[in-house]
Amino acid sequence: MKQTYLINNHHPRLLLFFAGWAADETPFKHYRPQGMDYMICYDYRTLDFDASLLEGYAEVYVVGWSMGVWAASHVLPALGLNPAGCTALNGTPFPIDERQGIPPAIYQGTLEGLTDVSLHKFLRRMCADSTAFRDFLSRTPRRPLEEIRSELARIAQLDATLPAPALRWTEAVVGHSDRIIPPANQLNAWHGLDTPVTETDHAHYDESLFKHYLQDRWTNN
Questions:
Q1: Is 78's pLDDT higher than 90?
Q2: Distance between CA atoms of 63 and 84, rounded to whole angstroms?
Q3: From CA 114, how far away is CA 152, in angstroms rounded?
Q4: Which phi and psi angles does 131 have, rounded to 5°?
Q5: What's the chain's Rg over C-alpha atoms?
Q6: Residue 186: pLDDT band with limits 50, 70, 90
Q7: What is the mean pLDDT of the segment spanning 170-174?
Q8: Would you call 144 exposed, middle or buried from its count of C-beta atoms within 10 A (0-12, 13-18, 19+)?
Q9: What is the C-alpha separation between 17 and 15, in angstroms, rounded?
Q10: Quick check: 54 and 60 in contact, CB under 8 A?
Q11: How many CB atoms lie within 10 A of CB 215?
């Protein structure tokens, strides 16, 4: 796993963001949560995590998006970390699941058919419309196709072998325009975990969603 500081000014609070599959810092580095350090985690070919980077913080707030919800659900309990808050955006702790995540046949089809062309189509489906997609293309992640194919395969391997995720999420946000992880499946997962849910009209990737949860909500916090 990569851990990259986007703000490292020795604030007492840390915003720890677990991004989704195929991500890097590029789409998220312009957000500036006030009065906080800000770290992004991505590349889940391994879930190894350097916990020493969290030392010294009085409070750690966690935001997970998409496959990052799964990663955080496994990584953080192993560290013994007790976050001040955990927010899940358009993801679940069960990423490959017929009723609580991406249906296995769709996941496997995405992996087996992954090409530059199919990735482009996947990214388009993440966005609400053509305007949002054009904006996203100006800051798409910069990772090689073979690397993200390996990541997708590795997530499936790890998910099949890891124990049940133990992280208690404070809240979950489910976008009804999500075309990557079926919203009904997300609701199944969170209702089964008794996690408070906010339902919105957001797409899977939505600039306004990240602007709020990675920046604006911390302005007066």
A1: no
A2: 11
A3: 10
A4: -65, -45
A5: 16
A6: very high
A7: 98
A8: exposed
A9: 6
A10: yes
A11: 18
User: Helix 67-79 to helix 145-161 angle, to the nearest 10 degrees?
Assistant: 60
Judge whether 197 and 171 are in contact, CB under 8 Å.
yes
Q: Report yes or no: 19 and 205 within 8 Å, Cβ to Cβ.
A: no
Q: Which residues pair with 102 in a beta bridge?
A: 96
Query: What are the tens digits of pLDDT across the range 129-139?
Result: 999 999 999 99
2-218: CATH architecture: 3-Layer(aba) Sandwich (3.40)
Both tokens of residue 4?
């990259």
Predicted TM-score (pTM) of this structure: 0.97
**Helical packing angle, 116-126 and 145-161, nearest 10°:** 70
Q: Rounded distance, CA 19 to CA 63, Å?
A: 8
What HEC string does the chain produce? CEEEEEECCCCCEEEEEECCCCCCCHHHCCCCCCCCEEEEEECCCCCCCCHHHHCCCCEEEEEEECHHHHHHHHHHHHHCCCCCEEEEECCCCCCECCCCCECHHHHHHHHHCCCHHHHHHHHHHHCCCHHHHHHHHCCCCCCCHHHHHHHHHHHHHHHHHCCCCCCCCCEEEEECCCCCCCHHHHHHHHHHCCCCEEEECCCCCCHHHHHHHCCHHHCCC
- Between CA 122 and CA 60 the distance in angstroms is 32
What are 110's two structure tokens? 């995405």
Amino acid letter, 187: L
Starting at the earlier edge strand, list the strands of the sheet with 2-7. Answer: 2-7, 37-42, 13-18, 59-65, 85-89, 171-175, 197-200
